[in-house]
């Protein structure tokens, strides 16, 4: 009987029985396996047995098995939607696993890291680690994990809309699982294929594959996994405009994910339910569940869900006539989207695929060349044995020729690589310049475009409400003026960056002083912004400079909105060869260990990471908040 066709509880019972006969390493590995089996039916039990296994590994001072159990902790955290925590466990285990000779363990770790990176939206890292995993599994000739890597790569390429590549990997995985007799994994792939057909809007085929998947999971006893089939059935019925059936499937899937405490998926499902209510015209129901889901996404720090829910809530509020709220969510969506630009990651993912395939071809060519040389030497050696002492000279000549030829090939390869590296460096320089221009163009499109879209909505609203009287019209005109001023400010900032290949620190200080003047005017001089210090005579490229100013701008705006401080200081210094900029307020502060960091902090951190800027934020209740930025130039 195939492994996953057995009932999971029976497998767990068999493993528990075997514990009585096992000692040392075998017992620890059995405890790990029990924990991993339990995650399909009961997460509390999964944690319990995994912790026992880890404790015994520590007691026995077995560093390698402790690392394996640490990976299991990461798998459980990722299953609960805590991908950042999962990555901490994986990175803790990484040095020990890498230094081992266990190709399977390396591949498994890389696979789990790939899964976690996918959940936090870093698809380039996700594909990179999955390709590393595939290489390890190919070395160990582990068919089931090779199939698993195909499946995961299918998911990654699906995420960047490379559907043909994705479907090809899924089918390779399904065929290999079918040959091995793994019913559970065949069900998993059928569900993934259902997802591909959903994206292609072929809802009939999507239902067929989702139904097959559901049947496979049920027969395998994998209760939690049935949720994935249920929400694919929900999407298919939603696409077919069978909204009541869609809601029924979504709610069944949501119940399972809440039992599992996988908040990442549960929050996305609530968004899908809200969208279905919108399609039915039940806007108040849609708003209630979307508001609830958005609060949960903020609390859990799930950025991709925040982005989707901002768009959903903007649409709902716009349809309800709550234009202020609609605009607020639209702006928040733009900010989050700015930190999650996927086109650059998508290019990197495709480059990784090409690099991997090229390496595979080069390795195969080298292997064949070596086999050919070995074969030639073997033949000549056999013939020369018959020729006596004269054959020894011939062998030496052949070996010398082979060594000479290898050295000549190496010299040519080195020369070719040197030329190639120079050409690549020049190409990278050109590409970096193009990307800087593209980023600024996106900034113009996203920020200015969203402002103008909202101004259009305000104009339409004013037209529809022209009979509501002077007060209503004055309110709309005031809003138009405010957003026009913001649009002009955004446009000036973008043009300022777009007209420069480089931005000096003096430029940034000057823009900060203009920001200070704007704050004084907007708050009727209730809040003062002091710009202090003399920046070093240094220049940054346009991308770094623009992002540095945006972080300063966001920090000042946050202080104005939330701190209650009458004074905000922006201080420019140079310390140990690095430029340091501090944004300091003396207001109410907040408890960083309890309060949600929200989207603003996430976006500032994301900007800083992309631009190579060190970012730190400190805050104390009643004493204020300090943001420190450092950049080496």
UniProtKB/TrEMBL annotation:
GO terms for cellular component: membrane. The keyword Transmembrane helix applies. Residues 547-632 form the Histidine kinase/HSP90-like ATPase domain. GO terms for molecular function: phosphorelay sensor kinase activity; protein dimerization activity. TPR repeats lie at residues 147-180, 227-260. Residues 437-500 form the Signal transduction histidine kinase subgroup 3 dimerisation and phosphoacceptor domain. Residues 349-383 form a coiled coil. It holds the Pfam family HATPase_c. The keyword Iron does not apply. The chain crosses the membrane at residues 385-404. This is Tetratricopeptide repeat protein.
């Amino acid at each position: 009987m195939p492994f996953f066709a057995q009932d999971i509880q029976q497998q767990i019972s068999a493993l528990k029985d075997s514990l009585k006969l096992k000692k040392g390493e075998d017992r620890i590995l059995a405890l790990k396996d029990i924990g991993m089996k339990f995650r399909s039916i009961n997460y509390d039990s999964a944690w319990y047995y995994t912790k026992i296994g880890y404790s015994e590994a520590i007691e026995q001072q077995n560093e390698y098995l402790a690392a394996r159990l640490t990976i299991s902790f990461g798998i459980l955290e990722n299953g609960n939607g805590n991908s950042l925590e999962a990555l901490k466990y994986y990175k803790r285990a990484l040095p020990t696993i890498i230094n081992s000779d266990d190709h399977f363990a390396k591949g498994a770790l890389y696979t789990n890291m790939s899964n976690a990176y996918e959940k936090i939206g870093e698809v380039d890292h996700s594909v990179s680690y999955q390709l590393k995993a595939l290489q390890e599994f190919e070395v160990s000739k582990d068919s089931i994990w090779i199939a698993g890597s195909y499946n995961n790569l299918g998911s990654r390429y699906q995420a960047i809309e490379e559907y043909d590549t994705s479907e090809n990997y899924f089918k390779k995985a399904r065929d290999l699982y079918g040959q091995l007799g793994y019913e559970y994994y065949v069900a998993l792939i059928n569900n993934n294929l259902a997802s591909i057909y959903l994206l292609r809007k072929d809802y009939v085929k999507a239902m067929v594959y989702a139904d097959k998947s559901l049947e496979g999971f049920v027969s395998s006893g994998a209760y939690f996994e049935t949720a994935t089939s249920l929400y694919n059935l929900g999407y298919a019925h939603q696409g077919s405009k069978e909204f009541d059936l869609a809601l029924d499937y979504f709610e069944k899937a949501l119940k399972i994910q809440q039992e599992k405490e996988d908040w990442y998926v549960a929050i996305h499902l609530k968004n899908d339910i809200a969208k279905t209510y919108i399609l039915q015209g039940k806007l108040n129901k849609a708003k209630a569940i979307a508001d609830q889901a958005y609060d949960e996404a903020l609390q859990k720090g799930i950025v991709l869900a925040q982005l989707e829910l901002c768009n959903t809530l903007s649409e709902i509020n716009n349809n309800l006539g709550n234009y202020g709220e609609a605009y607020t969510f639209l702006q928040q969506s733009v900010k989050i989207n700015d930190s999650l630009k996927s086109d650059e990651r998508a290019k990197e993912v495709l480059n990784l695929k090409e690099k991997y395939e090229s390496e595979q071809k080069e390795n195969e060519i080298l292997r064949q060349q070596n086999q050919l040389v070995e074969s030639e030497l073997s033949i000549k050696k056999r013939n020369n044995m018959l020729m006596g002492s004269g054959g020894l000279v011939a062998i030496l000549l052949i070996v010398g020729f082979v060594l000479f030829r290898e050295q000549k090939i190496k010299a040519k390869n080195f020369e070719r690589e040197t030329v190639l590296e120079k050409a690549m460096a020049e190409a990278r320089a050109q590409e970096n310049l193009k990307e800087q221009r593209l980023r600024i163009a996106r900034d113009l499109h996203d920020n200015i475009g969203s402002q103008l879209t909202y101004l259009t909505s305000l104009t339409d609203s004013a037209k529809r409400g022209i009979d509501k009287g002077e007060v209503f019209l004055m309110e709309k005109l005031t809003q138009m003026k405010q957003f026009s001023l913001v649009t002009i400010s955004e446009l000036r900032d973008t043009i300022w960056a777009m007209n420069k290949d480089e931005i000096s620190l003096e430029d940034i200080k000057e823009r900060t002083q203009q920001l200070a003047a704007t704050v004084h005017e907007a708050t009727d001089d209730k809040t003062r912004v002091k710009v202090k210090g003399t920046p070093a005579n240094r220049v940054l490229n346009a991308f770094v400079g623009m992002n540095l100013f945006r972080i300063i701008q966001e920090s000042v705006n946050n202080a104005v909105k939330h701190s209650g401080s009458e004074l905000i200081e922006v201080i420019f210094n140079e310390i140990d060869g690095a430029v340091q900029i501090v944004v300091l307020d003396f207001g109410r502060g907040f408890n960083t260990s309890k309060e949600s960091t929200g989207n603003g902090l996430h976006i500032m951190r994301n900007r800083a990471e992309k631009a190579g800027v060190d970012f730190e934020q400190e805050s104390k209740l009643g004493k204020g908040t300090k943001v420190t930025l450092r950049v080496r130039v």
